[in-house]
Amino acid sequence: MNIEANGIRLAVEDSGGAGEPVLLIMGLGGQLIHWPADFVQGLVDAGYRVLRFDNRDAGLSTHFSAHGAPRIPWIATQAWLGRRPRVPYTLSDMARDALGVLDALGIARAHVVGLSMGAMIAQRVTLLAPERVRSLTSIMGSSGARGLMRPRQSVLRVAAGKPSTADDAVLARYYVRFLKAVASPAFPPDDAALSDVFRRTALRQKPSTGATYRQLAAILADGERAALLARIQRPTLVVHGADDPWVPPACGRDTARRIPGARFALIPDMAHDLAPVAHPEIVRRTLGELLPFLQSTPDAAA
């Protein structure tokens, strides 16, 4: 379904049911279809109402193409110097989109679960409207503190090779290379599965470099969030892969350290690969941390 929220259109999927709602917030360039089906089903089977949506500039939600592609090196430099670079929109804007999803569905409070960039948005949701958050789960995310996010050089080299062409075959080869570069060495993804997820993604909405850069600009410009995390008073779980080469485990540890009472769960053999193609064992281990946490906080907002 499509809803209107925060002045834009957002594509939403709602599992329905009478269970406590869990709002899932996807990461950089991702679409709601990139949440693994067995991860979503695991939450549904546990009795939760699962809400997924496309962030702005992703999938079938509103795209901000008129803003063009931001100059990422300039924005990164300004952010590193502690300045406030002008960007098309901020993570706080994206957090208001997430709250708009809850508003449109008439949901007062939800467990908020974010993945990678979505984890950073989830942190912003909790800072903006703590009364709407039953619990916060930050998966493969970061506090945004300067100097933390240092991906491995091998992964940066692959990421830097993104082609400018719109040719599906060329783009598919790039995304397969990148997703393999950030995946678990112990549970490597199958090439056929990676190619299939790209095919399904392109059929729904082709990836856009400009859109990804606009989301990345919002991440880079959010340098003040780290100092604000101490204000969070909601039950918090921070989940990170022990083998994450894109957002290193130190980012997860730092996030958990900054949020009072947060619990940190380091998942063995997990990399930056819970989405879009996750090995069943990675999903099982993540749910093994997430479900007990959610079940321990049903009345947290009372």
UniProtKB/TrEMBL annotation:
The keyword Hydrolase applies. InterPro entries: AB_hydrolase, AB_hydrolase_1, AB_hydrolase_fold. Keywords: Hydrolase. Residues 21-273 form the AB hydrolase-1 domain. GO terms for biological process: glycerolipid catabolic process. One of its GO terms (molecular function) is triacylglycerol lipase activity. SUPFAM superfamilies: alpha/beta-Hydrolases. Coiled coil: none annotated. This is Alpha/beta fold hydrolase. The lineage of its organism: Bacteria, Pseudomonadati, Pseudomonadota, Betaproteobacteria, Burkholderiales.
